[in-house]
Write a sequence for this structure.
């Protein structure tokens, strides 16, 4: 249970970090931020990066700010930074509620928001948030910067649109309107465990009916994503058991269970249905 | 490629000059290079919490941090909890409460629980019971001691709020 050998690099500026990554990426070098997924993988020798670029000492990487209607999250902002609301209104409250579901306190004091996105575990709560709100993700390399929408960022289990020499330097979450309702539900066997299924529901109500619905599902497929059929089942309907059940059913039918046993597929659909319904009920209580 | 580097760690207020490979975890460095064997290594991949120490006041898994990353941080381990007094030592309220409330049996997880609880109570002295249970769920105890651990930490929290900080 000891990590393999690696050369250690500790850049002090973003430019240095990007230049170092550019150099070591072809050698399968990696960025380390919180390290709460990478170091266990190294201890188990599932990951043996010969170079680690440690970005914890980079000035300004812990930046967390509201600007131009968005929450800007720097690459070293820890999960624990979200324990208390970081923005007024529904987003800060939602993130603080979800942060408590991420592993345990000593993991949250080290692990980072952007690191979770770059790691792209199918059960990552922050990946679900990013996918559901369609976060803007800023990638940087020596070749320049580009902004990637979350909708096309997540490619599969621990796979993203980031090239090997690109570092995620910022995540930008849109600030929803003040009357936005948000609900999250996670199914796991124990507190702090990986999600078996989880759902995030976000919508507003105008004239008694649901508008701008967003339903994200995570943990059941290779990556979190919005479920268009579930959102369509909510749009224009009054919030309540009937609409929620229809959306939950639509989500259960929409998830991809190919390659799984019939029993597991049935279970995944059932647990997805429950997670979506409960997330919607939680959103309604949020009103 | 993996050269040893000379680093200085600050542990319980004392400087330790050690030479380590970058892959050396903080947990192993504390035990083997610093000789501070109070921090126990259990699972070595971040699950059990027995190696929990404080880094700048935050509870962290010492097996998931490399020693080279701990430079410049104030590290605190179980050895730093008790205070020297006259000829002997006075136990920290948490240590005394674990004894009084049978918060340990075999004791393997105890240093981790003590440092976790110390970090939590220093940040949030008036923590609610629900939040305390959630925080203590971070670490594993295999002697079925959770109820007594919770009791011990609650008792210590009351002591510490009353001004007895060990």
């Amino acid at each position: 249970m000891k990590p393999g050998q690696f050369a250690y690099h500790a850049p002090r500026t973003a430019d240095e970090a990007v230049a170092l990554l550019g150099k070591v990426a072809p050698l399968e070098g990696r960025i380390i931020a919180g390290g709460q997924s990478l170091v266990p993988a190294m201890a188990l020798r599932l990951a043996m990066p010969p170079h680690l670029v440690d970005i914890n000492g980079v000035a300004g990487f812990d930046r967390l700010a509201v600007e131009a209607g968005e929450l800007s999250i720097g690459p070293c902002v820890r999960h624990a930074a979200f324990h208390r609301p970081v923005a007024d209104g529904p987003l800060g409250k939602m993130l603080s509620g979800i942060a408590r579901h991420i592993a345990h306190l000593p993991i949250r004091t080290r692990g980072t928001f952007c690191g979770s996105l770059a790691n792209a575990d199918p059960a990552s709560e922050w990946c679900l948030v990013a996918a559901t709100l369609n976060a803007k993700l800023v990638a940087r390399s020596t070749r320049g910067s580009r902004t990637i929408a979350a909708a096309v960022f997540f490619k599969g289990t621990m796979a993203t649109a980031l090239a090997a020499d690109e570092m995620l330097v910022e995540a930008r979450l849109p600030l929803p309107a003040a009357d936005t309702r948000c609900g999250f539900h996670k199914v796991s066997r124990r507190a702090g465990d990986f999600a078996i299924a989880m759902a995030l529901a976000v919508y507003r109500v105008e004239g008694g009916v649901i508008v701008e619905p967003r339903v994200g599902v995570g943990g059941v497929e290779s990556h979190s994503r919005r479920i268009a059929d579930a959102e369509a089942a909510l749009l224009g309907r009054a919030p309540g058991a009937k609409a929620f059940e229809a959306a939950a059913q639509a989500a259960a039918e929409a998830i991809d269970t190919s390659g799984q046993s019939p029993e597991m597929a049935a279970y995944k659909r059932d647990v997805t249905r429950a997670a979506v319904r409960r997330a919607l009920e939680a959103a309604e209580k949020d009103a | 490629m993996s050269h040893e580097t000379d680093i200085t760690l600050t542990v319980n207020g004392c400087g330790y000059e050690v030479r380590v490979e970058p892959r050396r975890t903080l947990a192993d460095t504390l035990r083997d290079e610093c000789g501070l064997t109070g921090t126990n290594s259990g699972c070595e991949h971040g699950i059990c919490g027995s190696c929990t120490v404080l880094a700048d006041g935050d509870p962290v898994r010492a097996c998931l941090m490399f020693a080279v990353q701990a430079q410049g941080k104030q590290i605190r381990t179980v050895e730093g909890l008790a205070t020297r007094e006259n000829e002997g030592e006075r136990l920290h309220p948490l240590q005394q409460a674990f004894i009084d409330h049978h918060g340990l049996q075999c004791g393997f997880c105890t240093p981790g629980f003590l440092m976790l609880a110390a970090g939590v109570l220093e940040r949030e002295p008036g923590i609610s019971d629900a939040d305390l249970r959630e925080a203590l769920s971070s670490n594993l105890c295999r002697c079925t001691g959770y109820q007594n651990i919770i009791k011990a930490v609650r008792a210590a929290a009351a002591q510490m709020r009353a001004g007895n900080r060990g």
Remarks:
- The CA atoms of residues 53 and 112 of chain B lie 7 Å apart.
- Residues 146-161 of chain B form the longest helix (16 residues).
- The radius of gyration of chain B is 16 Å.
